[in-house]
Design a protein that fits this description.
Number of helices: 16
Structural class: alpha+beta
Strand content: 25-35%
Number of strands: 22
Distance between the termini: 61 Å
Radius of gyration: 22 Å
Strand order of the largest sheet: 13-12-9-10-11-14-21-19
Length: 461
């Protein structure tokens, strides 16, 4: 393999995960870090570390020049972007390659193509992947948008062509709202993404969010089955599972094969995810987007397939052909992941930075906790609030949830507020147990303030 050393251009738990995978492959690691992360676990774990800037991400983890300069200074062969930050930035991928290093992920052309939501919809359609009814491409103006909406009917989503991660999306249910939201959406997309282009999709009511994990080396392509990601708050996933529950064998086959067809159509290299909306009543699924990176929720796939996705994407980037054949990818049991954030769920998820104390992590069969925490660690206020991911595996969904319930009862992170109480409530929720959920379920349930009531009851007991 052409990679003997790599720079980790990210932070937190994914940086720890990358360092562990690289170490297992015998690769030397260099951790890029901001001043706020100088005493972080990835810095402590890596073979070497390099300061790339002050705490604000715009001046450190999003500074392409600083990261390329640090990589050159340390003489590494490759850069792993993790997720978020510059992981789906085509200019960054191109800059890495132009500097004579390997970008661990798809090439800049693929990132640019699939990162453009409108272009990605066309790629999906051309590959035979079902897409949500909507515009064929970017809307040229409000007149075209009105005509389209008259044809497909309300509700519709106005989406930023260059958006992602749930940003830049507006749902409108009538023309009065549409006339108000359309120009605002374009202005906001321009401000947020530097591109005011919009497209329109029909809203699929009561849909679930399911995504398929793909791997490719440019010539060979496989799927590693699918994940269930329907429990979301403000379009951010908080709980994930693998495989998705309640799919018939025929639907699972069609879904996963469509993702592989899309990967093949662009000669995809690396790890990626094809995301879908799934309507359980009709069993129809519709393409949403492609994420050209490792996903936060990749561990649940690793738990049911036994495949080390991070190691495999490093090998592929290093020129090693895909080492796994499709017929050897099998589902073993069920896995659930809970995202543990530094937020107070009883106070509208207010951020809770501070110093961690009394850390207790459960261990045992079928358990995994991906994190960067240690006793005495200061959670900085500058970045995403994710502290770690508690993952539980069992023979089936019921046993996986039960194992998660027991793990959460043991997991303790003192000194700050966390979302552990939210997940304790979810593992006891009968709707979650029965799979009676969709992408709107969690926000509707939270609107009843169940966690605030529980906290008040505890305080008054």
């Amino acid at each position: 393999m052409a990679i003997g050393s790599l720079l980790v251009a990210n932070r937190g738990e994914i940086a720890v995960r990358i360092i562990r995978a690289a170490r297992a492959l015998g690769i030397r690691t260099v951790q890029a870090h901001s001043a706020a992360d100088a005493d972080s676990l990835p810095v402590r774990m890596a073979d070497d570390a390099v300061l790339i800037g002050p705490p604000p991400a715009a001046k450190s983890y999003l500074d392409i020049g600083a990261i390329i300069g640090a990589a050159k200074q340390k003489g590494v062969d490759a850069i792993h972007p993790g997720y978020g930050f510059l992981s789906e930035n085509a200019d960054f991928a191109a800059a890495v390659t132009e500097a004579g290093m390997i970008f661990i992920g798809p090439d800049a052309e693929s990132i640019r193509l699939l990162g453009d939501k409108v272009a990605a919809r066309k790629v999906a359609r051309d590959a035979g992947v079902p897409t949500v009814p909507g515009s064929d491409g970017r809307i040229s103006g409000v007149e075209e948008a009105r005509a389209l909406v008259r044809g497909i009917g309300f509700p519709v989503m106005i989406k930023a062509a260059a958006g992602g991660g749930g940003r830049g999306i507006r749902i409108v249910r009538d023309f009065a709202e549409f006339e108000k939201q359309f120009p605002q959406a374009s202005s906001e997309a321009k401000a947020a993404f530097g591109d005011g282009g919009l497209y329109i999709e029909k809203v699929i009511e009561n849909a679930r969010h399911i995504e398929v994990q793909i791997l490719g080396d440019g010539d060979n392509f496989i799927h590693c089955f699918e994940r269930e990601c329907s429990l979301q708050r403000r379009r951010q996933k908080v709980w994930e599972e693998a495989p998705a529950f309640g799919l018939s064998p025929a639907v699972r086959k069609a879904l996963t094969e469509s993702a592989v067809a899309l990967a093949r159509s662009v000669r995809y290299r690396g790890a990626g995810t094809v995301e879908y909306l799934y309507h359980p009543e009709t069993e129809n699924f519709y393409f949403i987007e492609v994420n050209t990176r490792i996903q936060v929720e990749h561990p649940v796939t690793e738990m049911i397939t036994g495949i080390d996705l991070v190691a495999e994407m490093i090998r592929i980037a290093g020129g090693t052909p895909l080492s796994i054949r499709q017929e050897n990818v099998r589902i073993n049991g069920h896995a659930v992941e809970c995202r543990i954030n530094a937020e107070d769920p009883a106070a509208n998820f207010m951020p809770s930075p501070g110093q961690v104390s009394g850390l207790v992590v459960p261990d045992g069969e079928g358990l995994r906790f991906d994190t960067m925490l240690y006793d005495g660690y200061w959670v900085p206020p500058f970045y995403d609030s994710l502290l770690g991911k508690m993952i539980a595996h069992g023979a089936d969904r019921r046993s996986a949830i039960q194992r998660m319930r027991e793990a959460l009862a043991t997991l303790s992170i003192g000194g700050i507020k966390t979302t552990i109480p939210l997940h304790m409530a979810l593992v006891a929720n009968p709707d979650v147990a029965e799979g009676a959920i969709n992408t709107k379920y969690l926000e509707g349930w939270l609107a009843g303030a169940p966690l605030s009531k529980a906290a008040t009851a505890t305080e008054n007991a």
